[in-house]
Amino acid sequence: MPTHETGHYKNVAALEEMILKITAMGTAYNPSKAAIKIASLQTLFTNAKADYLAVSPLSTAFNNAVNDRITVYQPYKSYATKILAAFKSSSDASAQKVKDLTTINRKIQGSRASKIDNVPVDPNAPAPNNISVSQQSYDMKFDNFSKLYDILTSEATYLPNETELKLPAIQTFKTSLLTANTNVAAAYESVNSARLKRDKTLYKDVTGVYDIQNLVKEYVKGVYGASSIQYKQMVAIKFTKP
User: Fold this and answer.
1) What number of H helices and E strands is found in the chain?
2) Quick one: pLDDT at residue 1?
3) Could you tell me if 202 and 50 are in contact, meaning their C-beta atoms sit under 8 angstroms apart?
4) Which pTM does this prediction carry?
């Protein structure tokens, strides 16, 4: 698990430890500020834990969508080559249309995602922080295949006997490409939204865990003194902020 992910978990665990220690102080811990009362801290801990745990399953769903897309796109180039051959041999298309389709196929054969985009990922690994380059690459692939399909539909004499080369099969494949792209984009937005919610709970100025725990430490210092065991115990509980 990357450092930034373990850091979030440690902050949640640290808050729980802090709550246990100030609860043990009994009536001596009696702040006037509502945000650092024990009940408020317990609510904050419950929310922080829930928001942290929500990210992992959504990250897994994103990685599964990425892996599914790799599978869907696997025949992308070879299928386009077969379609071009069928177009040449199973239609009376003009030389210009054949040239246009050949040009599109050349773009399809030349298109490639980065090396990492073609390698299946561990479903349990954290989703990346950015997918824009990868998404644009796959969007371009879909766009090229759509242009190939449009040329086919414009040629009434394209009537191959092979089922996989007929227009309905090609349209089905085109739809599967779009669906795969959409699924990855939607899954990423879900995990990204969950991360934003988690980060707001943990790190938002004033109300986030990171700022609240500092107030708790200041309160304990005010009650017991900077050299007290109680304050030293608070300082020993480490929180980090990305």
Assistant:
1) 8, 0
2) 42
3) no
4) 0.86
